[in-house]
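Render this sequence as a predicted structure.
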Amino acid sequence: MGKTLVIIGLILVAVGIIVQFLPQGSLPRLPGDIYIKKENFSFYFPLGWCVLISIVASLIFWLVGK
């Protein structure tokens, strides 16, 4: 359990450092992201990022559990 928490913490630190260097905290758009823009309304849901993060997290937990 402790090893998993340390790995999660290191991943969060790495992601935090990467986000600090992105302009305005924005992520690049991936294929699959949902972006709707109308006159007085805009909606952005990063579905591509959600899938990518899920795959990476699953791989990490699989490797740690091995």
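Summary. The chain has one domain: 2-65. The radius of gyration is 15 Å.
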